[in-house]
Amino acid sequence: MPRRAELRGGIIDAAVLRDCCLDTAGTVDPRGLRLRGVHVRGRLDLAGFDAEFPIAFADCSFDEAPDLTGASVRGLAIVGSPRLPGLIADGLRVRGDLDLSGSRIAGAHPGGGSRVPAAVWLRDAEVGRRLLCVATTIDAGGGQGAGRRPDPRVGQRPARRRVRRDRMRPADGCRHRRLAGADRGPHRRRAHDGPNDPGEVALDLGEASIGGSVLLTSYADRGDAGRARIDGQVAAANLGVAGRVVIRGAVLRGPDGQAAVSAQRLAVSGAVSVEGGSRVHGGLDLSYGDLTTVTIGGDCAIDAPGRLALGLLGAEVRSHVTLEPGLTVAGSMRLAGARIHGNLVMSGVTLRSPVPEQGLVSARAVAIEGEVQLRRLTTEGGYLSFRGATIGGTLDATGATLHNPGERTINLQQAVVRNSVRLVDGFSSTGFIALNRCVVEGRLNLRGGRFACPGPSAENPGGHAVQAVGVTVRGGLHLRGARIEPSVDFRNVTVSVLDDEPDEWPERFVVSGMTYERFGDLRWDRAARLRWLARQAEYDAGPYEQLARVFRQHGYTSDAEAILIERRHRERRAARRHPLRPRTALDALYGWAVGYGYRPGRTAWLLLALLIAVSASLYVPGVRDTLRATDPRGNAYAVDGRVVTVDGAGAGPAGADAAPSAQAPRADACGDGQVRCFNPVLYAVDTVVPLISLGQRSTWYASPHAPLGRLAEWWLNLATLAGWVLSTMYVLSFTRFARSV
Asked: I want to staple 703 with a disulfide (CB 3.0 to 4.6 A). Which of 327, 390, 414, 628 is the partner?
């Protein structure tokens, strides 16, 4: 008849205990074999043992590490053991729980086919329900142990692997609390080269399969005494978890230079969360994993300065990645190539101490279907890189403070943002923002932000606070209230709406090739816009042409022409030619006269003024007295009617070919029809307008022998030249050629 087997206190030989288990296998009560406070002398060898009952050791101590290789039991518990030199259980099959709670495991034993010793070997083990490690301490520095012959290769490697769980397949759940390893062997591999070198692993869950959840938690009411602790790395490559992975109130301390949790290709059906004030020294590497959600609480901290703090390289997250407000992360976050189907939330987080010459967040080519929330984020050194990323929602950095003097603070080069980019309302960047060739489907909103760059650098030779070369913004560029120092680079930017205050732009900027369709302000202030373009770092005609085009498209034709005239003025000044050079003088005259062809009406007024001036001068007696006319016979006429015949022209005798006039001189300015009568107004028209010939200028001329003859001659000739120039300008001003000279 089955009976319950229970032994309390005393000493028992391991061989006797083995015989007892074998001999009473069919008669033991289903509740199992229980030992309490017993000291097991020698090595307990239950290799290959097959029992239908559970075995429990409570507060028992062992001389040597028990060997359960290939054993099969309904349940196994070694709890509260003050001395357990290790556990060798490769291929162990436990249909119920495997409970190591409260035990102190100290030792190091080589595993079959492995050169790495470990305190607990559970390779190829299967646990049907839970693995319980509540308040368990694991110390692999307790020696080789006496149970097996030492592997000669082990002596060459001073560090030990603390727990091995290769290919473990428990079907229900797994809980781990207060696991501690004493030795922290030297750093033996470069970061992220794959599995760790031996001696750095405290808990190895590689290739395991957990049917329930993995919970690494602490007792909430016991303070530090009940805190979960792991000194050494948790290696969980290719671990599959059907439930959740929860780290709550734990302290994880990875080996020097390595991650505290290395769980590449981790597959978790539930959430992965770090909460309850957990402290992770060494970082979390979840690269290439298949995860549902990742959450790190705001009362936690990840401390891996100059190393990887959180790795999601190439991972697929089916929902959100959330770093809650208050979290401090020292180290770099790598999300390159990851695909996040929800939001990436880092609002209120503090990031610092990245990997040298790398970013605080490296998310190159990441695909985020939701939003990137960076509200009130604080960075100290390093930058946020989303180069080539695809973001399905808004990138919102409202109130964020980014500090990386002389270097970039945000890198969105070649990224695609399906909604808006918000760097607004208290946003502060000390460094420079790189937006080159990115596409923003919504708005690029910089309202109320502060952007300062202390000076140029190798990647920012212009010292611009914002680099946005070749950016396409379909929802508009909003700059009202933004303080940008000392400059911005908006070359070849394409936006639909430019919403700004012209006077709020920095002292210098580059807007060559920038195109926009309208302004956000209903006030179309031409003078303010011209003052704006006058502050370009270097003169470029393109922005003036673009400004004039926008004004003309919205019905401000006169303003558009004034802008183009100012463009020509600026161009002449930028050329820095000597003012007395003919080309410079002609260009200045052309601009003053007809506004470089955009103000042809000025010529008409100048011609009219010249006509009036010439007409008025011809009414001056001194000028009128200089005018003469000659008929075909050689008779001279003055405008006051005095007629001088050929024979009476001089005081001496008439020449041999001179003949006396047949008629006496008469006071007739026209010589009784011999010449065209003089008319001051028509004479002025004939002088000033070269396209018209009224016969006045060809008939009457200023005599150089008169007292004012030379002066009148020069005046009329200059008026003719001025009239020809003005008339030519008037005609050419209607052609494209005139406006391109």
From this structure: 628
Using CA atoms, how far apart are residues 331 and 325, in angstroms rounded to an integer? Answer: 17
3-state secondary structure of 360: coil
Q: If you average pLDDT over residues 542-553, what whole number do you get? A: 94
Q: Is 97 helix (H, G, I), strand (E, B) or coil?
A: coil
Report yes or no: 599 and 565 within 8 Å, Cβ to Cβ. Answer: yes
Nearest in space to 212 (alpha carbons), one of 171, 246, 179, 180: 171
- Contact criterion met (CB below 8 Å) for 322 and 300: no
- For 536, half-sphere exposure in the C-beta direction (CA atoms, 13 angstrom radius) is 22
Euclidean distance between CA atoms 538 and 527, whole angstroms: 19
pLDDT reported for residue 737 = 45
Bridge partners of 416, per DSSP, are 390, 439
Angstrom CA distances, 333 to 11, 305, 379, stand at 54, 11, 12
Q: Assess whether pLDDT exceeds 60 at residue 90.
A: yes
Query: Which of 70, 62, 135 has its CA nearest to residue 102?
Result: 135
**pTM, entire model:** 0.73
- In this prediction, residue 130 carries a pLDDT of 75
Fill in the DSSP letter of residue 596.
G
What does the block give as tokens for 503?
């006077």
Instruction: Say how far apart CA 102 and CA 226 lie, in whole Å.
Output: 11
Q: Are strands 271-275 and 279-281 parallel, antiparallel or unpaired?
A: unpaired
Q: How confident is the model at residue 365 (pLDDT cuts 50, 70, 90)?
A: very high
Helices in 502-659 by DSSP H: which ranges?
A: 526-533, 541-553, 557-575, 582-594, 601-618, 621-624
Given a contact cutoff of 8 angstroms between Cβ atoms, the answer to whether 381 and 403 are in contact is: yes
213 DSSP β-pair partners:
none
Burial group, residue 214, by CB count within 10 angstroms (0-12, 13-18, 19+): buried
> What's the whole-number average pLDDT of the chain?
80
> Which phi and psi (to 5°) does residue 636 adopt?
-105, 145
Q: Which two tokens stand for residue 671?
A: 């010589």
Reduced to 3 states (helix: H, G, I; strand: E, B; else coil), residue 546 is helix
Number of C-beta neighbours around residue 135 at 10 A? 23
253: CB partners within 8 A, 6+ apart: 184, 229, 230, 231, 232, 260, 281, 282
Q: Residue type for 670, please?
A: C
Interatomic CA distance for residues 741 and 738, integer angstroms: 6
How many CB atoms sit inside 10 A of residue 66's CB? 26
Q: Quick one: which H or E segment has residue 444?
A: strand 444-445
Torsion of CA 215, 217, 221, 222, to 10 degrees: 130
User: How would you classify the pairing of strands 701-702 and 627-630?
Assistant: antiparallel
DSSP H helices, 336-407, are none
Dihedral sign, CA of 152, 156, 162, 167?
A: negative
Fill in the DSSP letter of residue 84: B
Q: Where is 163: in which H helix or E strand?
A: strand 161-164
Residue type, 131: L
Phi-psi category of residue 465: left, alpha or beta, with phi > 0 → left and psi -120 to 50 → alpha:
alpha
Torsion, Cα 76 80 86 90, to 10 degrees, reads 20
Whether 610 has a pLDDT exceeding 90, the answer reads: no
Eight-state DSSP code of residue 45: B
Contact 172, 211 (CB under 8 A): yes
Q: Which candidate, 446, 444, 437, places its Cα nearest to that of 467?
A: 437
Beta strands 627-630 and 636-638, pairing class: antiparallel
CA–CA distance, 235 with 265 (Å, rounded to integer):
11
| pLDDT given at position 80 | 84
Residue 337 in tokens: 């190539």
pLDDT reported for residue 492:
97
